[in-house]
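Worked example 2:
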Amino acid sequence: MLIREYIETDWPAVWSIFREVVEARDTYVYDPEWSSDEARNVWVEAPPGHTVVACDDSRIFGTAKMGPNRPGPGSHVATGSFMVAPEARGRGVGRALGEYAISWAREQGYAAMQFNAVVETNVPAVKLWQALGFEIVGTVPEAFEHATFGRVGLHIMYRRV
């Protein structure tokens, strides 16, 4: 699997993953009613941010975006968001994207990385981020309207890079 910088011709495949993940309403706080253009404006990062895809020669299995968590005095902490195509889950795509993001943050000179909204019922993601050294530093109760479980918490996760 190759992780490479996103290029504009990747959007149809990324949009397909984005739409499927967001419409499930179980892992992302993004609006499932967004158009392709609205989603692209949120997902594709401008510098100093960075957007990548995980792929083989012809197929995109996942995507990630990363950059400063906040501007100005908060810009020394990176953040990231990750999506894996449902049919590619459990094959190491999320781990590869996570490891890439941590390395990228380190190379860019960030001091730490923070995830602002990891849905507490997304156990595979929580376990993955913990395995990669993130800790839950807080949980906002009932901050996410899950399609199956109703209102559940959003974890804030953190690690030094």
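Strands lie at 2-5, 50-55, 60-68, 77-84, 112-119, 135-146, 150-160. The chain has one domain: 2-160.
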